[in-house]
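Protein fold
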Amino acid sequence: MNNLDDVIYINQLLDIYGELLSHGQKEILSLYFRYNLSISEIANEKDISRSAVNDALKKGVKTLQSYENKMMCFAKSEAVNKLIKELSFDEKNKQIIDKFNQEYNKNGI
């Protein structure tokens, strides 16, 4: 998975569903996708084989994609963001959206 868009997508799925993965899978996926460590570097750091790292990556990505296919949290978030961008062209809507974003960031909604 060398495509930057794929890496960004997996990182977003990790943000949403990462806590649903096993500790080991989450850690390996984070090292690979967030910290850009190679399979060999992860294997050395975790003292496991490169094959085990590769298997954990494949299984972890598959699991994240399975969660997204079922729950669609990322897709729904993208749809909401698209609507917000469309609405923000109107100045009054932009003020409402800015107020919403301030509340969202303040309260962690």
